[in-house]
Amino acid sequence: MADPKTYTATCSAPVNIAVIKYWGKRDTSLILPTNDSLSVTLDQDHLRSVTTASASAAFEAGDRLWLNGIEEQIKDSKRLLACIQECRKVRKSREEADASLAKMSDLPLHICSENNFPTAAGLASSASGFAALVATLASLYSLQPTLSTSDLSRIARQGSGSACRSLFGGFVAWQSGTSPDGSDSLAVEVAPKSHWPSLQALICVVSDAKKGTPSTAGMQQSVATSPLLQHRIKNVVPGRMVEMGKAVQAKDFDLFAEVTMNDSNNFHACALDTSPPIFYMNDTSRAIVQLIEEYNRSSIEETGKRRVAYTYDAGPNAVLYAEEKEVPTVLALVRHYFPNADFDDTFNLLGAGANASHRGAQ
Ligand code: DP6
C-alpha cells in the first residue's frame, strides 16, 4: 500500500511591541482584554518564530508539538488546544461544504516551532509563537480567503492576547470588543510598515533572566487589586488610543514618543499599585528612562520636539523608538552611559514593521 499523503506548511511571525499596553482580561478563558491596545510589529529578520505543521494518517500517536526542539504536551495547554481546534473546525466545515477538498481536518498533526532569538531574553516569544502557529495552520488548511487576517487574529488571541497583533505588520490595534463570545475582539491594521519606514526600534536587553511574575498572572493580580488599573481602563487608555492613532497617521514622532512613554509609565505604575506590588523594571531600566528623559528635555529646548521614546513590557528590557537619522546618536548615548552593562544584545531593528507572516506561507 502507498504511504499515506502528508500535507505540510511553514510560516513565520514576528514579535510586536505595544506602545499602548494590554494589561488585564475581562474573560481569562477566551482571552478578552479590559482595554484596547496598539503595537508596532518588528522586523521579521531579527525576532521571529518559525512554525512547520504537517498532517498525516501516518502520525499514529496523534497530535504532537515541539517547541525549540523539546516536546510540549498539547493536552496540557488549553491555549494550544483552542488554536488547533478552532483552525480544524473551520477546515472541517469547508470540507463538508465542498466535496472537492481533501479530507484532512481529522488527520493527526505534527507541529515544530522555533524562535530565532533566546526565549530567556524576556522578549515576547508567546506573541510571535502563537501568531506563527495560527498562520501555519491557516496555510496548511487553506483557511484564507474564507477567513480574513482579522479572523485569524481572533484565533491567535486565544493562544496569547498579544499574539493577535503579530498577524499584521506595521502598526496594529487590538480592539477589545464588547461581545461576551469574543467575536469582536480582534486585531486591525492601523497603518502598514511602508507608511512610516523611518521609524526604528532598538531593543536593549538589560537582563536575560526569566521574569519573576509572568504577564498572564501579573495582569489578573492587577485586575483584582489595583484601583489605578481601573482608572487606566476607563479614563486613560481610550484617549491615548485616539492620540496614538493620530500620531501614527501624521507620522508625528513627538506625539508618538509622548504617548508611548506616558503609557509605559502608567502601566508600570499599575504594576506597582498591585497587591502585592509587581516590579518589572530594575535600576538599569530606570536609569535608561532618566537618560532618555534628559536627552529629550535638551532636544525640546533646542527644537521643541522629543527624539527618542522608551517602553517596557513585563520585564526590565528597554525598547527604544527613534527616527532612523537619530539611531546612531541614540546607540552611542546608551553605550556611553552604560559602558559596562550587558548591552551587547542591543538589536537595531531596521524597519518598524513586517509583512503579515502568513502572506509568506509556503
Ligand atoms: C505587557 O499577551 O503575554 O506585553 O494574553 O496572558 O498570554 P496573555 O498575556 P501576554 O501579555 C502581554 C502584556 C504586555 C503588553 C502588551 O503586549 O500589550
Description:
With 362 residues, this protein is an alpha+beta fold. Helix content is 36%, strand content 22%. The chain is built from 8 helices and 15 strands. A hairpin with a 4-residue loop joins strand 3 and strand 4 (32-33). Helix 1 runs parallel beside helix 2 (125-140), helix 2 (125-140) crosses helix 3 (149-156) and helix 5 packs antiparallel against helix 6 (253-272). The longest helix is centred in the middle third of the chain and has 24 residues, at 227-250. 47% of the residues are buried. It binds ligand DP6.
Question: Can you summarize this structure?
Answer:
This protein is α+β, with helices and mostly antiparallel strands and 362 residues long. It contains eight helices and 15 strands. Strand 3 (25-27) and strand 4 form a beta hairpin.
What coarse outline follows from CA principal-axis ratios?
Answer: globular
Characterize the main sheet: 5 strands, mixed
Strand-pairing-aware structural class? alpha+beta
**Terminal residue distance:** 29 Å
By DSSP (H or I, 4+ residues per run), the number of helices equals 8
Tell me the total number of β-strands. Answer: 15
Q: Which sequence of SSEs, written as H and E, runs from N to C? A: EEEEEEEEHEHHEEEHHHHEEHE
Which ions and ligands are bound to the chains?
A: ligand DP6
